[in-house]
Amino acid sequence: MGYGLLAEVCTIVTIIAIVMLYRYVFAKGLSDTAYAAFGDRAGMIVGIVGGTIYTFLFARLLARNLADRQVAHGIVVAIAAIALSVGGSLAGHHGLPSGYLLASILKLSVGALAGLLGARSRPPLPA
After folding, report:
1. For 19-24, what is the mean pLDDT?
2. What was the pLDDT predicted at 57?
3. Would you tell me the crossing angle of helices 70-93 and 99-121 to the nearest 10 degrees?
4. Angle between helices 32-64 and 70-93 (to 10 degrees)
5. Mean pLDDT value of segment 68-76
6. Cα 108 from chain centre
């Protein structure tokens, strides 16, 4: 569950870093409306792509260190990340943007994939 939290925290930090770089380095002097529009677009794109990548990375990290049930643990990482992103969206946006369904499906897929790759990289347990 902690790796799911880390995946979401890394996604949020990445979104904040991109928005701050845009505002203070790459596009100085725009209106607040323009910055808000960029933040919404960046949040949606980075939330989907970054959330998927971070979920995979942390599920893979966990799966490499387990002796068995790597796929199940990868899915748990994904479910934790999904629960945190949905909960955060409901608290912050008072709703779910349309991209959350795609992001959730991708997170579940990469969580299972990371577990599968982790299971394949481990030698079989002695009988």
Report:
1. 96
2. 96
3. 160
4. 160
5. 92
6. 10
- State residue 123's pLDDT score: 62
Whether the Cβ atoms of residue 117 and residue 65 lie closer than 8 Å to each other = no
For residue 64, what are its two tokens? 């490499």
Classify 112 as helix, strand or coil. Answer: helix
Polymer length in residues for the chain: 127
Task: Find the radius of gyration of the CA atoms of the chain.
Answer: 17
Q: Give the burial class of 99: count Cβ atoms within 10 A of its Cβ; 0-12 exposed, 13-18 middle, 19 or more buried.
A: middle
DSSP labels for 73-94?
Answer: HHHHHHHHHHHHHHHHHHHHHS
Q: State how far Cα 101 lies from the chain centre.
A: 13
DSSP letter assigned to residue 65: T
Of residues 124 and 32, which shows the higher confidence score?
32
Instruction: Report the Cα–Cα distance between both ends of the chain, in Å, rounded.
Output: 29
Tell me the C-alpha to C-alpha distance, in Å, between residue 44 and each of 30, 73, 118: 20, 26, 29
